[in-house]
Design brief:
The complex is a heterodimer of chains A (about 220) and B (about 130). Chain A is α+β, with helices and mostly antiparallel strands. Chain A has helices at about 25-30, 35-95, 100-105, 145-215, and strands spanning about 110-115, 120-125, 130-135, 140-145. Chain B has a two-stranded antiparallel ribbon with strand order 1-2. The chains are: A alpha+beta (about 220), B mainly alpha (about 130). Chain B: Pfam families: Prefoldin_2. Chain B: Heterohexamer of two PFD-alpha type and four PFD-beta type subunits.
């Protein structure tokens, strides 16, 4: 019996092949006397293919999930700078509601303590500015005005979260197929065990009656 | 995989039908989701503890000193009242995230319990749905 791939031609979303559900183990193997080695091996191959795809997708998703907090941090920093600028400009328009403390802190430059290296920090003062530089990867850094920067970061965040969601969907589909193949394998194996036992019992019965005939 | 004693083995009546397979698939999917939720809830809980510690510290802080509040990867110097405002906002965001996760995970758990009852009823010891 050729050990052709047991995976059907049908593909689920994004090219993951769908696992067939074996309705009748005996029919699938091809009769009560056929060998189970072939089908078992084919199922085993399919399972390892699925496991490989599974680890692939999991790696990709992990990478994305690491990027997302980075984008969020950058976004919250840029939003903070924007807030400050808006706070300042609105205050100059409305002097009556000036909160003295706020005015003080907003007129002073923005002081930060940032990480130069692990456990090494330095203080820096940020001038009032309407431009930020964003690292786009691949050794490319572009300057953006604050609103544009916020927009870009937000859309990057959305895209990353969408990708994570679709990867998760794929993974769930993949796990389903994997589970089905494992169940298939268990059923084929159990069927084989049962069949061997039945054969053995039949032989013993046959052997007994034969020796009884001879003895009798 | 484990070996089952011969007398505990199933007889032919407990065949796996297509519906059973779908239930098993659904259980497996929910189980994986639950693990994801549990991991995220653990992370959120730790963040919450950190923020709670922070609010205790700030209660005792000196009003005249500026607070180094972390935004992203850097620390910004800001007056105490501003830091307290941000802290409240961050705590509220975190609580909202946590309760959403809790809700989803409880939903998963309820569905999983129902499936367990059905599947154990049909397959008994031939199937293992626990850790």
């Amino acid at each position: 019996m050729s050990s052709s791939s047991v995976l059907s031609e049908e593909r689920g979303a994004r090219g993951i092949p769908k696992a067939p559900f074996i309705q009748d183990v005996e029919k699938h193997i091809g009769g009560a006397d056929a060998e189970v080695e072939g089908p078992l091996k084919a199922i085993q191959d399919a399972i390892s293919k699925y496991r490989y795809m599974d680890s692939n997708l999991t790696q990709r998703r992990l990478g994305l999930e690491e990027k997302i907090p980075d984008i969020k941090k950058t976004l919250s920093m840029v939003e903070y700078i924007q807030e400050r600028r808006e706070g300042k400009s609105s205050q100059s328009e409305d002097d009556l509601e000036d909160d003295l403390e706020d005015e003080d802190s907003n007129s002073k430059p923005l002081k930060t303590t940032f990480e130069l290296n692990d456990t090494l920090f330095a203080e820096a003062e940020l001038e009032d500015t309407d431009t930020v530089y964003l690292w786009l990867g691949a050794n490319v850094m572009l300057s953006y005005k604050l609103p544009a920067a916020i927009q870009l970061l937000r859309s990057k965040l959305e895209a990353a979260e969408e990708n994570v969601a679709s990867l998760t969907e794929d993974l769930e589909f993949l796990r389903e197929q994997l589970t089905m193949m494992e169940v298939n394998m268990a059923r084929v194996y159990n069927w084989d065990v049962k069949r061997r036992r039945e054969h053995r019992i039949a032989e013993e019965q046959g052997g007994k009656s034969a020796s009884e005939k001879e003895g009798g | 995989m484990r070996m089952v004693e011969q007398d505990q083995e199933n007889d032919d009546s407990t065949e796996v039908t297509w519906e059973d397979q779908q239930k098993i698939n659904l259980f497996s999917k929910l189980n994986t989701r639950m693990k994801g939720f549990e991991a995220k809830m653990e992370a959120a809980k730790q963040e919450k503890e950190a923020l709670d510690d922070l609010s205790t510290e700030l209660e005792l802080a000196d009003d005249t000193e500026s607070v180094l509040y972390r935004i992203g990867e850097t620390y910004l110097h800001m007056p105490l009242h501003r830091a307290l405002e941000r802290l409240e906002q961050d705590q509220a965001d975190l609580d909202a995230r946590f309760s959403k996760l809790l809700q989803s995970s409880q939903q998963c758990e309820t569905e999983m319990k129902q499936l367990k009852v059905t599947l154990y009823a049909k397959f008994g010891s031939a199937i293992n749905l626990d850790e």
